[in-house]
Amino acid sequence: EVQLVESGGGLVKPGGSLRLSCAASGFPFSKAYMNWVRQAPGKGLEWVGRIKTKTDGGTIDYAAPVKGRFTISRDDSKNTLYLQMNSLKTEDTAVYYCITMASFWGQGTLVTVSS
Amino acid sequence: SYELTQPPSVSVSPGQTARITCSGDALPKKYAYWYQQKSGQAPVLVIDEDSKRPSGIPERFSGSSSGTMATLTISGAQVEDEADYYCYSTDSSGNHWVFGGGTKLTVV
What we know:
The complex is a heterodimer.
Chain A: E1 3-7, E2 10-12, E3 18-25, E4 34-39, E5 45-51, E6 60-62, E7 70-75, E8 80-85, E9 94-100, E10 104-105, E11 109-113
Parallel strand pairs in A: 2-11
Antiparallel strand pairs in A: 1-3, 3-8, 4-5, 4-9, 5-6, 7-8, 9-10, 9-11
Chain B: E1 9-12, E2 18-23, E3 33-37, E4 44-47, E5 61-66, E6 69-74, E7 83-90, E8 97-99, E9 103-107
Parallel strand pairs in B: 1-9
Antiparallel strand pairs in B: 2-6, 3-4, 3-7, 5-6, 7-8, 7-9
């Protein structure tokens, strides 16, 4: 059974940093492209970024609103995906999901950016 | 930046056919995916790669794509189908993904 479990969310002040993790199991993680998606309260879904497999170069692409502030990485030895978020803004407040193969989503972790 | 456009809302009576559209310039060459999201829950994939129905999704859900428009069709919509629906696809480069703005389906 595919499982994705996000963690690391919480309350942070504007300008602060936070690192989210996504622990994966039930599928060959090293062979999967992984994405982060977020959803602000009462708003629609927003793609944050994607990391390819190392075999495919490990290329990372980001959505414009987070480029230069967020960094996606992966540790295939730990079957874990990360999202390092720096220079956080109030508009980054959202539930953050990791997803793979379009079908599989975690339960999400809430990030609140507020003073 | 690339955009996918959906109608904000669609309303049908129970048993009627609901159609939700998604338009985007890259759709002639890129797959569309459709998600259903009920209040307080994570999204669920209801249509994969334009028209494939994942295991466990009722047969009344179908998808199609023609030109720059993808369509999610719910034949004989039921009250439990009330939800927000999002299309999802990538730009022509395949490197930047995007969700449509979402469509609130009301079945009443």
